[in-house]
Amino acid sequence: MQMNIRSGLKSSIGPEPVVHSSAFRLVCSPSTVQTEPGQDVVLSCAVQPPSDVTAQTVEWTRDADVIVHVYRSRADNQFLQNQQFRGRTVLIHQNLKDGNVSFRLINVTNEDEGNYSCWFPNSEVKSTISLKVVPQMNKETNNHPGSGLSSGAVAVVVLGVVGAFLFVFGILAWKFSLCRRKRDDPAVKKWCYQDFSE
């Protein structure tokens, strides 16, 4: 049986194969990921060259000491996971056979911001991604809060312009109609055909 000093738990599966750091490297990309509070985010990491890591221990930590997700003995270990992350992380086990150790963080909060490291404790292979939580976008304007016009303000401006156009068009149509109907009246004729150049 294997005893893990970090967890104090015994595994009846037997010792994990030791993987030397020269056997593969861990690549996390992109190095910085931005998301908004309330969104889900995937932190992508994979071993290169691709190889089956289903028998390995995979740990995700934040800021080096907060345990975010642990995969050990072919299963997730929620007992080691920080309370803040319980029920909010998903590591897709089927992807481990291809060396993909990416995980999904569900319903991101501002407190989740930090540097996330994925590592294989038996080989000391490690890579880090920085998670930035940005303010939620204003859904009405597609801008940050306080910038730009709301859709209601835009509607008022558009209606004002259309209304002004219709008013001017109505005056011109009325004048044209009056001038056509009373073209024999000298006062109307003068008003209709006055010279604006003077």
List the SSEs and their pairings.
Layout: E1 2-3, E2 10-11, E3 25-28, E4 32-35, E5 41-43, E6 45-48, E7 58-62, E8 66-72, E9 75-76, E10 89-91, E11 103-105, E12 114-120, E13 125-133, H1 151-181, H2 186-192
Parallel strand pairs: 4-13
Antiparallel strand pairs: 1-2, 3-6, 5-11, 7-8, 7-12, 8-9, 10-11, 12-13
Helix pairs in contact: 1-2
Transmembrane segments: 152-174
GO biological process, one term: regulation of leukocyte cell-cell adhesion
Keywords: Disulfide bond, Glycoprotein, Immunoglobulin domain, Membrane, Signal, Transmembrane, Transmembrane helix
Structure keywords:
198 residues; alpha+beta; Immunoglobulin-like; 2 domains; six-stranded mixed β-sheet; three-stranded antiparallel β-sheet; 2 helices; rod-shaped; disordered N terminus; signal; transmembrane; Ig_sub
Parts with pLDDT < 50 across at least 5 consecutive residues: 1-21
**Assembly category:** single chain
| SSE string | EEEEEEEEEEEEEHH
CATH topology of the largest domain: Immunoglobulin-like
Tally of helical runs: 2
| Structural class by SSE content | alpha+beta
State the total count of DSSP E strands: 13
| Ends apart, CA distance between termini | 107 Å
Which strand order do you get reading across the main beta sheet? 4-13-12-7-8-9
Instruction: Report the helical percentage.
Output: 10-25%
Percent of residues in β-strands: 25-35%
Q: What is the number of independent domains?
A: 2
The gyration radius over C-alpha positions equals 34 Å
Top-tier CATH class of the largest domain: Mainly Beta
**Largest beta sheet, briefly?**
6 strands, mixed
Output mean pLDDT. 80
CATH architecture of the largest domain: Sandwich
Dominant shape: rod-shaped
CATH superfamily of the largest domain: Immunoglobulins
